Amino acid sequence: MLELLACVGLHWIIKYGTIFDKPRNLIKMVGVLRELLNCSLCLGFWCGVVVGALVNNIIMYSFASAACCWFADNLNNTLQSVEIKLDK
Predict the structure, then answer these.
(1) Cα–Cα distances in Å, from 83 out to 20, 21, 22, 80, 88?
(2) Whole-structure pTM value
(3) Helix or strand or coil: residue 12?
(4) Helices 58-87 and 2-16 meet at what angle, rounded to 10?
(5) How many CA atoms lie within 13 A of 31 on its CB side?
(6) Is residue 45 within 8 Å of 12, Cβ to Cβ?
(7) Cα separation of 27 and 21, whole Å?
(8) How far lies 29's CA from each of 38, 44, 48, 59, 67, in Å?
């Protein structure tokens, strides 16, 4: 469970963290990598590869991370949409 939370955290830091603004803007110049940064499922998979390599179980964590990151990102987007509607 801790590893999956690490994947979600890594995903959010890469996708939204201000510390990665400059590298993210450079990476977005390449078409395939731009798509990677815009897709929670894809980015979550690669975060799972990284974390899975650290815990020696790459395949399981890659797919589990993709699912968790996609779910967490969509949940976050939904909550932000609800918050915006409630503020109006």
Answers:
(1) 26, 25, 29, 5, 9
(2) 0.71
(3) helix
(4) 60
(5) 0
(6) no
(7) 10
(8) 13, 20, 24, 29, 26
pLDDT in tens, 41-74: 999 999 989 888 888 778 888 888 888 999 999 9
pLDDT bucket at 83, cuts 50 / 70 / 90: very high
DSSP code per residue over 20-34: GHHHHHHHTTSHHHH
Chain-centroid distance, C-alpha 60: 17
Q: What is the torsional sign of CA 45, 64, 77, 83?
A: negative
- Furthest-apart CA atoms within the chain: distance in Å: 48
Cα distances (angstroms) measured from residue 81 to each of 4, 13, 58, 66, 73: 25, 20, 34, 23, 12
